[in-house]
Q: What sequence folds into this?
């Protein structure tokens, strides 16, 4: 490798690290993204133009075409996507990265002639790439609703784990036997693809953020493995950064949902078909209407809004901001309480509310807002369910027992906006809805909030 | 087994870098506010598109008559660059919305 390419890769690697670091603070995040992107452009340009290979022009043209096509499609998808569809797009892009890694492995295997270590990196790249590809596609399908509900496979954990062990054993055989038959490696690819499907399919929609984060981390590892194959530092370090960052994010999300990483990978992850709480008599619910709710909000001093996935589904982020501004103008002190796993990805609510220009200093995280609920007159819960379920505190038999929640029950009054009385993603009843202090405002979040706003304007 | 140990001793540099990079990744990501988790995941996802460098190498090393390698390499470059460009663009869109009002 020439000195100039090494220096370019070094600069790109530094850009990756600084970019990621800057992405950790709201004020510098935008620059961080640009710096990382610039590093990537540098690494790609350097790879294409600086080498001492004899490359025919036709291949340069093909590379140029591939880059143009991929950039155009990727850019178009990223610009077109709605903010609410962001999580599934990230999942889709991640799948493409995994597929790329698997394809590289296939070509390199066909070239053959490597020692055992090289074959090991190639087969691991193929397996991990294939798992991320099919797993991400299933996660994408689950989030956009094209893959319906939770599909139960009998003994799915045992089946999955045996299948994974089978793939690893098969890969081990290919490496140790020094097999060069391409059919074998296509078998490995198929195995990885099937495992990716088996892995994600039984997992419920609420747990998808953890899965996407984990798959994202795996793509990084696949890139790093490919980097070892080519002794390419920028791939190695870039991939490892994503791999370890992804694991940290995954762990942070697991904590928010009161699960362990071990339970995510091998355990009864997402299979919360418990009926805890349903056989209890929870009392009755009290329905309310937009005008009564508007009165409650109008005469409150402190109001906290708790947004959830229902807000995203109904695309109600703009109207909720209008409501918040209206109340603020009337002298009400309004804040948002953001649960770490509200929505379908951590920070999903922040992104959504930022889209409608909500000042991010109004968005408070769970630890900061929880002590404030007791001094709050009205809490408005919009499309959130499990993250405000008191069963997490007081029902040891509940699957979400021990999960940190927003303590909305400490407030003086609670208005819950929900479409129906259906249980949340975890499939469990929520006794908050039956609380004496709670009133239910049924309806689509956008419709309900729009009526609330027009009622408030008339006051 | 011996070959793997031999590989590690022949590539000590890579082994060191690998381990240090893991720690850098963890340190850089620690203490990130939940507000930024989604953009960060998206940004990290764009970075994992660095695999496109490998896909370009596959094509550069290809014999112009090796259609198998060229076709798979071509698809790998398209998918990899899609991940990179789409990932950074979507992250940029998310982050553009984080502004503090005065």
A:
């Amino acid at each position: 490798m020439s000195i100039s390419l090494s220096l370019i890769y070094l600069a790109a690697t530094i850009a990756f690290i600084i970019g990621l670091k800057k992405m950790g603070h709201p004020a510098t995040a935008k620059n961080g993204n640009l710096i990382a992107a610039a590093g990537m452009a540098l690494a790609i340009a350097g790879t294409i133009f600086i080498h001492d290979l004899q490359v025919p022009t036709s291949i340069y043209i093909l590379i140029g075409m591939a880059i143009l096509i991929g950039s155009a499609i990727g850019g178009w998808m990223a610009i077109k996507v709605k903010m609410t569809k962001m999580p599934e797009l990230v999942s889709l892009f991640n799948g493409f990265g995994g597929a790329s890694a698997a394809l590289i492995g296939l070509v390199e295997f066909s070239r053959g002639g490597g020692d055992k270590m090289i074959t090991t990196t190639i087969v691991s790249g193929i397996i991990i790439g294939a798992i991320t590809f099919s797993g991400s596609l299933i996660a994408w399908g689950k989030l956009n609703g094209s893959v319906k509900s939770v599909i139960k496979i009998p003994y799915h954990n045992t089946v999955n784990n045996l299948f994974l062990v089978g793939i690893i054993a098969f890969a081990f055989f290919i490496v140790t036997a020094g097999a060069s038959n391409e059919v074998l490696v296509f078998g490995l690819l198929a195995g990885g693809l099937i495992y990716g499907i088996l892995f994600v399919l039984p997992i419920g929609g609420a747990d998808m953020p953890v899965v996407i984060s984990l798959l994202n981390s795996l793509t990084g590892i696949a890139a790093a493995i490919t980097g070892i194959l080519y002794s390419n530092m920028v791939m190695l370090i870039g991939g490892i950064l994503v791999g370890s960052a992804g694991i940290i994010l995954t762990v942070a999300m697991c904590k928010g949902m009161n699960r362990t990483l071990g339970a995510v990978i091998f355990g009864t992850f997402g299979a919360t078909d418990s009926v805890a709480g349903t056989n209890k008599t929870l009392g009755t619910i009290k329905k309310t209407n937009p005008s009564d709710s508007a009165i409650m909000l109008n005469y409150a001093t402190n109001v906290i809004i708790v947004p959830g996935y229902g807000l995203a589904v109904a695309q109600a982020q703009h109207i909720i901001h209008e409501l918040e501004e209206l109340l603020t103008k009337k002298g009400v002190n309004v804040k948002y309480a953001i649960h770490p796993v509200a929505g379908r990805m951590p920070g999903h609510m922040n992104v959504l509310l930022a889209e409608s220009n909500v000042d991010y200093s109004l968005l408070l995280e769970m630890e900061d807002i929880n002590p404030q609920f007791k001094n709050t007159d009205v809490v408005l819960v919009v499309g959130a369910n499990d993250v405000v379920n008191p069963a997490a505190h007081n029902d040891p038999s509940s699957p979400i027992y021990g999960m940190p929640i927003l303590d909305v029950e400490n407030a003086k009054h609670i208005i819950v906006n929900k479409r129906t009385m259906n249980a949340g993603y975890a499939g469990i009843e929520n006794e908050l809805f039956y609380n004496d202090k709670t009133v239910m405002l049924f309806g689509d979040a956008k419709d309900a909030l729009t009526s609330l706003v027009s009622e408030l304007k008339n006051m | 087994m011996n070959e793997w140990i031999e590989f590690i001793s022949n590539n000590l540099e890579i082994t060191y870098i690998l381990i240090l990079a893991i720690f850098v990744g963890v340190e850089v990501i620690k203490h990130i506010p939940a507000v930024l988790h989604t953009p960060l995941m998206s940004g990290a996802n764009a970075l994992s598109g660095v695999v496109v460098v490998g896909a370009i190498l596959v094509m550069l090393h290809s014999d112009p008559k090796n259609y198998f390698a060229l076709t798979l390499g071509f698809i790998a470059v398209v998918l990899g660059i899609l991940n990179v460009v789409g990932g950074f663009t979507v992250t940029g869109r998310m982050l553009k919305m984080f502004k503090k009002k005065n």
Q: What stands out?
A: The two ends of chain B are 63 Å apart (CA to CA). Chain B touches chain A through 82 residues (CB under 8 Å). Chain B has a mean pLDDT of 86. Chain B is about 75% helix and 0% strand.
